[in-house]
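Quick one, T. Sequence first:
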Amino acid sequence: MGETIRVAIVGYGNLGRGVEAAIPQNPDISLVGVFTRRDPASVTTLHEATRVYPQEALFEMKDQIDVLVVCAGSATDLPQMTPLLAKDFTLVDSFDNHAHIPEHFAAVDAAAQAAGTTAVISVGWDPGLFSLNRALAHAVLPAGTDYTFWGPGVSQGHSDAVRRIAGVIDARQYTLPVEAAFAAVRSGQTPTLAARQKHSRLVYVVAAEGLDEVEQQRIEEQIVTMPDYFADYDTIVRFISAEQMAAEHAGLPHGGNVFRIGRTGLAEGVGLAEGAALAEGVGLAEGSALTEGAALAEGSALTEDAALAKGSTLAEGSTQVIEYNLQLQSNPEFTASVLVAYCRAAYRMQQAGQSGCKTIFDIPISYLLPISAEQMRATLL
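Structure tokens:
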């Protein structure tokens, strides 16, 4: 579409590296550089040409940046950084603490509205693409039940939360779906499930050298009782060496499933209203029946060539299962790819004068793609 969107990365961990890797796949987006709280000389980027700046240089280079991608943790960093940066920049973040999204939204919206910037928060796959699919499924099956299963895989946010505990050098948190619950939902059942009945959590921790058993017990207690992350789940904590972590837990796979189980068709006891008629060509097949109490009003008619299946009734309805699945070899690389697509959307919303805080629900799909509306209709519709 002609314009080049200038993007800067704030923070350079796994997610920041993923954003750096994703940008070259988007010809309408260019990378200004990486901005870090570390010594820039200590940061080795994926591409030799990527420039690294101290984070305070952001404000000196404000006129060279269209969109910031804030690559930081949700536990403590993003609640502070995103509202602060939204005072000066259009941006995208991946805040993923579901329980605190409303308050994060309010803080970011106040800053962005006052500054006239556009801030898109909670972008990724959950929250993010899973959220969008839950919303679509709600619209299509209003009479239904939602289920979300994560894993098996490594949660970056939960791992980061554990690493912030005093005495923890490194951590990996695996989210594991409960197989029996998952199988029941996939089969179309709608059980009532508490959080711990859907998932368990397994945490591998590298503790600081020299910590005794009492200190390890303190770390374990802080993990399993952590609100919003572990308190509502059965959680196992295992202490391992740094060498074992590097050898056995270097990868960052993840994924999950969103389900909505719903009913369609006429509900039990529902009949045809007075004056209603079945459409031309629709009737009752051999052996079909209107349920007790359902009747055709005067003047209504069943036409020939009945269409209901043999033995069915108008009142049975149907069970429908919507399932959306992700299987990710690299959680941060995939999340980064979603963030980059939403940089394009944030830029376009800013150009259109749409300031304030936004979520994935506020953004037209067309804002995510680098092609024209005509191309979308010709190739994707």
